[in-house]
Amino acid sequence: MALWFTRSRTVVLQSLKQKHAFWAATTPLRSSSSTVPFPCNSSSSSPNLFWVNGRFKSTLAMNQLDSLPFSDSDDEQCFLGGVVNQRLCNSFYCPVKIYSSVALKQALDFPGGKVTYTSEMTFIPESQEKRVPCYRVLDDNGDLLIGSHLHQMSKEVARKIYNSMVTLQVMDTIFYEAQRQGRLSFYLTSSGEEAINIASAAALTPDDVILAQYREPGVLLWRGFTLQEFTDQLYGNKGDYGKGRQMAIHYGSKKLNYVTISSPLATQLPQAVGIAYSLKMDKKDACAVAYTGDGATSEGDFHAGLNFAAVLEAPVVFICRNNGWAISTNISEQFRSDGIVVKGQAYGIRSIRVDGNDALAVYNAISAAREMAITEQRPILVEALTYRVGHHSTSDDSTKYRPLEEIEYWKTTRNPVNRFRNWIVRNGWWSDKEETELRSSVKKQVMHTIQVGEKTEKPPVADLFSDVYDVTPSNLREQEKQLREDMIKYPQDYPSDVPL
Amino acid sequence: MGTGLMRFGRRMRWVPSVSVCNIRQFSTSVCDNNPPAKSFNLYTAINQALHIALETDPRAYVFGEDVGFGGVFRCTTGLADRFGKTRVFNTPLCEQGIVGFAIGLAAMGNRAIAEIQFADYIFPAFDQLVNEAAKFRYRSGNQFNCGGLTVRAPYGAVGHGALYHSQSPEAFFCHVPGLKVVIPRSPREAKGLLLSSIRDPNPVVFFEPKWLYRLSVEEVPEHDYMLPLSEAQVIREGSDITLVGWGAQLSIMEQACIDAEKEGISCELIDLKTLIPWDKETVEASVRKTGRLLISHEAPVTGGFGAEIAASIVERCFLRLEAPVARVCGLDTPFPLVFEPLYMPTKNKVLDSIKSTVNY
Questions:
Q1: In contact, A491 and A276? CB cutoff 8 Å
Q2: What is the pTM of this model?
Q3: Of A100, A437, B89, B203, which is most buried by a Cβ count within 10 Å?
Q4: The CATH number of the domain where A293 resides is what?
Q5: CA angle A389, A196, A231 (to 5 degrees)
Q6: Cross-referenced SMART domains, in alphabetical order (chain B) (predicted)?
């Protein structure tokens, strides 16, 4: 390893010395040529400059490199489709000269298939010249793109998708406000990501097992989780299936095949593989579907999940909502790859990048991904480009770290709900009157669930101790007994709404 | 991760020689019908348990690093041939992946029997065990559970394992409500406790004393039997002092008991077997009888599970205690290679502590 590092340093240094246009040609990711203000790091200096300027804090390291034997000769320079290794060519000799063409035609039998030989010492570039394009069907105005292959979507499904997106929007608005008023302890919206939530759910069947992160309540909504069920979880009252144990927004429903949310990031990915493996062994016509954000892709469990899925040939659809921000961490501070979609290939996973604000594109991509995952028994990775229009949560103020104009642009011009509405209105499937009625009706319903949820009593003390194990062990029984005595002795120390 | 470097027998060690039917408080029917019992070593007993687990439950799976060919300790020998590569298979070298995958598999109603090649390498899976497996049932209000999960891992000293092939990390997991931690002391115990762990409807971390894999030999019934979890066992009766331990350390403690007896000290030795949730009652009853307590484990003394036992028993038996609770444990250093014999809670350290406690 040490040797490799030494050489690769030399490669970079020498290529800079030769002033090849390599870096300029292969760093489009960091440039801001796009007119769309997607949060790429347009202000940062190019990585090679950073490397040269900032690399050698230690003079010792610089001296070590200086002492390496360089040749300034341009003779016999091997230009290797991108990266030039002048020093290695000169110091050792170009392999072309010593190997016969016969030797080059030989191939190496290696696990995974034949590997051919080449005399060109080519380093695979760190990125492709062009970023992976983003699949979309509707343009920003909701017009169908010419030549797009649209899966047949019935009027009923389209209306239900729109209805659910609006419900999610209204629900988010009211719950967010309720938290601001101090009526809820915590909330987290899906604003800007309604299309990924709802359209992906619409493309799945109820048998597909969902392992969400926490910004995918729309999947539950689509599957029939009621507004009262959402509210009861937020209040942690007796109606909460989680028995008041978890923070708000940690929903879960066995009935709806939606595994209960946990806060740690990416832990659900390897679990999704285990679930998918079980579906595979049971020969079920279903897959596991794991959602994450862009930040979670840096976690070790992301790697574990994708690698296990590929190796164990598990029917999992990984959906990454790349919304640009992990709380305040921009994706430019999260990874140096062209997003998430390119990571799939390294694991041997078929992948697609899709416009996450185009509900039709999401629907098509997830439908196809699900079909391939099940019929071919393999994982699929979907990266959906979108934007977190809201703050990370009610504990966050995102204007402290990102410009208002950026938020506004995604909230208006690139709004996924408006875009889909334009399309269904144009189809004659939706009207302004219905819009008004729907929003008003959902608002009333959510307000009603809040009134009910607030009044519903909290789970009893027994629920503090149950479910740690299948049967409560003696230490917990003792602690429960002690606590009950304390609660009677010092009632003022304990919440009055938790029944004994 | 593991380098498969285990070569046994470099240093001989006393091997427990309890026969199947001499053990008191034995709560299963192993001895009742005199079933066939041949002598087996510990890894073979584990292997038998895994065969039975896969045989008796078509939804049982065994997987981990190198388990396909039989595992670096041979515990999974023959399983893939018998039950097929879809039920017994290698995984990529990624402990958090193994445990995460196992949780998902268990959540679908399967028995997921995962192997971590060495307990020293369980830490990448710590998050999956602590934040996921342990809380899966609780956080969902019992809608979901991963009770079918069992994580097996060889643990403890082996004579030449040094920092990364010798650790005893049990105390970390004893601090996690929702997990069970089980450690057997011998082949017969290993088979019965492993089958119980696999079939227990809670996630279990099962540490196997790797030094005993080949060294410990005793009669093991060949049939399917289970030993109860959360039940400690008095494996040697005495009246002057209670000794509590688990796993391989029990054999060291038993030698100390034998030597102490020669000096007229009667020791009661308890195998805790399940560390969480642990059987306080059996330990308490014994200490009420003897008035003295000594705990011994290989893990470093500070923050070790011995501290928890000591505190609990002092709470319950303060007025009955005739001496401070003694702990003879590993040193508070990383587990060293050349210094292993210095680090270890040896027989004479235990014997000395027995004497000073009795003579306090």
A1: no
A2: 0.86
A3: B203
A4: 3.40.50.970
A5: 75
A6: Transket_pyr
Pairing of strands A113-116, A107-110: antiparallel
Structure tokens at B109: 């109603």
Architecture category of domain B37-221 in CATH: 3-Layer(aba) Sandwich (3.40)
ipTM: 0.91
Contact B105 A311 (CB under 8 A): no
Asked if CATH classification 3.40.50.720 holds for the domain at B233-358, the reply, yes or no, is no
Token output for B51: 């065969």
**Alpha-carbon torsion angle A110, A116, A120, A123, nearest 10:** -50
Domain carrying residue A469: 462-493
Look-up of token digits 């390893």: A1
Residues of B in contact with A273 (CB under 8 A): 97, 100-101, 104
Report the C-alpha gap between B342 and B336 in whole angstroms.
9
Query: What is the full per-residue pLDDT of chain A (500 aa) written as tens digits?
Result: 333 333 333 333 344 444 443 333 333 333 333 444 454 444 443 443 333 333 444 445 445 544 444 444 443 333 333 343 444 444 444 444 455 667 677 899 999 899 999 999 999 999 999 999 999 999 999 999 987 766 679 999 999 999 999 999 999 999 999 999 999 999 999 999 999 999 999 999 999 999 999 999 999 999 999 999 999 999 999 999 999 999 999 999 999 999 999 999 999 999 999 999 999 999 999 999 999 999 999 999 999 999 999 999 999 999 999 999 999 999 999 999 999 999 999 999 999 999 999 999 999 999 999 999 999 999 999 999 999 999 999 999 999 999 999 999 999 999 999 999 999 999 999 999 999 999 999 999 999 999 999 999 999 999 999 999 999 999 999 999 999 999 999 999 999 999 99
Q: Are residues A49 and A187 in the same domain?
A: no
Amino acid identity for residue B62 in this structure: V
**Chain A contact for B85, CB < 8 A?**
no
Give the residue carrying structure tokens 């299948």: A470
Q: DSSP characters for A42-57?
A: TTSPPHHHHHHHHS--
